[in-house]
Amino acid sequence: MFECDKCGCCCRHLDMSPLYAELDSGNGVCRYLDGNLCSIYENRPLLCRIDECYEKFFSEKISLEEYYSLNRQICEMLKRKDD
Ligand code: SF4
Ligand code: SF4
Fold first, then answer.
1. Per-domain residue ranges for the chain?
2. Which residue has the least CA distance to atom 8 on ligand 2?
3. pLDDT digits over 23-43, tens only?
4. How many Å is the maximal CA-CA distance in the chain?
């Protein structure tokens, strides 16, 4: 399972991808973000589910190790933006 530290950074920069436009409250922050946590976590969209997205879209293209590594790089980039 992907190790997430629940910083909430990915949910505050939705304007970086058109895929998340429907969740964007207008300033890049997800309308469902409550503090740093997802208020609809159990029912969050597929695109917010890292492990399920791997199974559905990436498992035949890259290894899980590579996929996690890419996700971690994006997390770190987003954290730097929020510093
Ligand atoms: S930016 Fe990464 S570590 Fe932070 S909440 Fe999102 S997935 Fe988790
Ligand atoms: S639905 Fe939840 S996990 Fe997805 S971007 Fe919004 S707050 Fe983050």
1. 9-82
2. 11
3. 999 999 999 999 999 999 999
4. 35
